[in-house]
Amino acid sequence: MSSPPRSLADPVTDWDVLDLGPGESTALTRLWRGFMGARCFVALVLVLLQGVAFALGQPMQPVAMAISALYVVASWLGMRYTRFQPPIRGFTALWLLTIGIDLGTFTALQLLQGGSVNYTPLFALPVLMSAVLGTMTVSLGTAASVTLLLLADAGWHWLQQPVDSSGRFVQAALTGTGLFVVALLAHELARRLAREEAVAQRSRSSAQMQAQVNDLVIETLSEGVLVIDAEGLVHAANPAADAVLGHGLAQLALPFPLHAQPAWHALAALARQTFARREPQTEEIPVAQQRGAAREVRVRTRLTPTSERRVDSLCVMFLQDLRELEARIRTEKLAAMGRMSAAVAHEIRNPLAAITQASALLAEDLTDPAHRKLTSMVQHNAQRLARIVDDVLDVSRARQQRVLSLGEQVVLDPAVQVLAEEWMRQTQRKGVHVALDAPGTDVRFDAEHLRRLIVNLMDNAARYASTRDGAIQVLTTLQRAGTPRPSLMVWSDGAPLEPAVQRHLFEPFFSSESRSSGLGLFLCRELCRRHGATIGYERRALVAGGPEGNEFFVSFAVSENRLTQ
Questions:
Q1: Same domain, 194 and 244
Q2: How far apart are alpha carbons 281 and 340 in whole angstroms?
Q3: What is the total count of domains within the chain?
């Protein structure tokens, strides 16, 4: 079971409450490898010491040589195969295979060689190892074991030579005291090292997480962001900055000089001005593009705060395309105007109905042709106003009701056939061709809304089409080029639309004719959005080699029943 997470301020008191998993403490792991290497080095020195003593004429001691050789093998095997998981929590197999072997080896050599060689300093190695890599219990227990071994050695010499053994007892007591002090200090330093490492690991994790969040936020910002140092080098740039500045900014290797492109010289000058004045700057700068006219960009700069004198501030530059800002403002104005228009339309409807009714009653009593023509003009314009009012209210209702019930769906081909024929009867329009190629396809669309969509598209086509046969064509298909969904196309042979007109086709109150409300195509777009469909325009020929025309296409969302089949 894992322990609950701790904050950076939580105290770490001992190894037992410092929950370090396998391999988590890299510092202690390095110390473990250091101790294992030191044991191998001491083992080799012991073997070499036996050889040097024999070379100096001292008698060979086979048992001591054998113990030293076995210690070399044991220390190498311990370094190669022993797995360490900090800390050493008790007198376990790990303690016996490392610290226990050291104590046994050094004690055996001390007893075998008597007073010829003093092995007491070697006992510092297992004491330090237990203090650094073990708990307080293991540390003090090892120091106590060494002290008892030294006292036992002094007692053995006292039994053999009672006269001159007092010095050995004093030496053993002083050595044991020193080992206890070393064990306490080394253990405290090791605990502090582990505590600082744990805090550093948590701080690094928090910093990495914060850096990832910052990168994600910067990457998804709609504003362009550049991070510039005092030398004019760009150290970071987000995709929005590439979209605003262009000139292959995304392909440049970081860091790169901001003045690398002539079009960015004004930005580099603003960054230098920010560093010189040590305060934020705001300016609207035209930035030249590789294609098209220069782009007006609002540039805001900020300096990062710094508390260290050796660390320089960075200039964070925010780039905002004024076209997008103007588009948002225009959208908000249109929304406000739409709400006002809906309110005005409600107020106009009743007086308009009264005017129409009064004009009709007046026409019944008039016999003079001139008077009847005037009343006819009144009725015609009143009907035009009524259509505009209905369009405004339809737009308002379409924007308020965006969610369509899954039960509202129609069979595409029969509905289009009926609605197209109904439009032709009402308008007395000839030469309209209807080609249906989506048999049995259900689409998510309200029947009344589909009628409004088709009527608006065919009215728009009739306004610009010629009078020849096939000048207007209504088609359906199961898969249009690039759109694997049921589609409806209304095509007409009208003249090409100007690029300026194409950009604003589906905007409200935009029309190239003075007698149009400019709400027809906007209403079509709102109805399509509400039903999960898309609408678009393109200039194309229906057949290869045929005449080009203006085509408005609608890609429908397939009904739920169709998806489950």
A1: no
A2: 39
A3: 4
Chain-centroid distance, C-alpha 223 = 16
236 phi/psi in degrees, rounded to 5? -155, 145
Full DSSP string of 248-266: TGGGSPSSEEGGGSGGGHH
Length of the chain: 565
> Are the CB atoms for 490 and 461 separated by under 8 Å?
yes
Q: What is the pLDDT of residue 447?
A: 85
Q: What is the span of the domain harbouring residue 269? A: 221-325
Summarised one tens digit per residue, pLDDT across range 51-66 is: 887 788 777 788 888 9
CA distances in angstroms from 464 to 273, 459, 460, 471, 551, listed in the order given: 56, 9, 7, 10, 12
Pair 194, 284 in one domain: no
Report the C-alpha gap between 223 and 209 in whole angstroms. 23
Average confidence (pLDDT) over 130-136: 88
Of 202, 236, 251, the one marking the end of a domain is 202
Q: Where are the alpha helices (DSSP H) in 221-321?
A: 239-245, 265-277
- Give the single-character DSSP code of 305: P
| Closest by CA position to 13, among listed 191, 190, 182 | 191
**Residues 61, 112: contact at Cβ < 8 Å?**
yes
Contacts with 164 (C-beta within 8 Å, 6 or more apart), sequence order: none
Q: How confident is the model at residue 397 (pLDDT cuts 50, 70, 90)?
A: low
CATH number at residue 275: 3.30.450.20
C-alpha count within 13 angstroms, C-beta hemisphere, residue 417 = 9
Quickly list DSSP for 379-416. HHHHHHHHHHHHHHHHHHHHHH-----TT--EEHHHHH
Cα separation, 462 vs 474, whole angstroms = 12
Single out the residue in 400, 427, 455 at which a domain terminates. Answer: 400
Residue 531 shares a structural domain with residue 501:
yes
SS3 helix, strand, coil % of the chain, rounded to 5?
A: 60, 15, 30
Give whole-number Cα distances, 359 to 140, 347, 365, 384, in Å. 112, 19, 10, 14
Can you tell me whether residue 230 is helix, strand or coil? Answer: coil
Q: Could you give the strand order of the β-sheet that contains 256-257, starting from the edge strand earlier in sequence? A: 256-257, 233-237, 224-228, 315-321, 295-303, 281-287
307-318 pLDDT, tens per residue? 655 567 889 989
Q: What values do phi and psi take at 445, rounded to 5?
A: -165, 135
Same domain, 83 and 166: yes
d(CA 139, CA 95): 11
Measured CA angle at 137 (ends 134, 141), to 5 deg: 95
Q: Which residues of 373-400 are buried (b: 16+ CB within 10 A; e: fewer)?
A: eebeebbeebeebbebbbbbebbbebbe
- Burial of residue 99, with CB atoms counted within 10 A of its CB: 0-12 exposed, 13-18 middle, 19 or more buried: buried
Burial class of 334 by CB neighbour count within 10 A (0 to 12, 13 to 18, 19+) = middle
Structural domain includes residue 216: no
